[in-house]
Amino acid sequence: MMEYAIYWIKEDVARSYFHKSDILHRFLKEYEANPTRKDLRDQYIYITHHISLQAIAAQLNSQALNQMSIQTDGHMLYLTKNDIMIRLHAENGRLHFQCNELQDAAMLLFPMLRNCYPFVFVQGKKAPNYGWVSPIT
User: Would you say the pTM of this structure is higher than 0.85?
Assistant: First the structure.
């Protein structure tokens, strides 16, 4: 399974860095590699909103698509529809998810996130994929 992190970026930062995704990506990778570095931590706190798994679960449950199942198991959340399964958990204010293909998340998870979190940035843990979930208008 592929693993990705989701960051809820503050609006002013998202508007400034929407067309500079590579800079944001490099900063987030550097922060993940050195989370105890005070300058990186302070900047991370400044540019992101905290994501709560309980809030995500409530939002997803209220927007669940037809024939989609949402289940919680401790600190994990599972989205399933037909043969697609996405596993989510929150850690340090960001949301992590695992799926077989990013297209699975694009079909199930991202549409629901767009409705409640307009400035969401996604990047792969080991995959080189990164970018905004929706365009900024």
Answer: yes
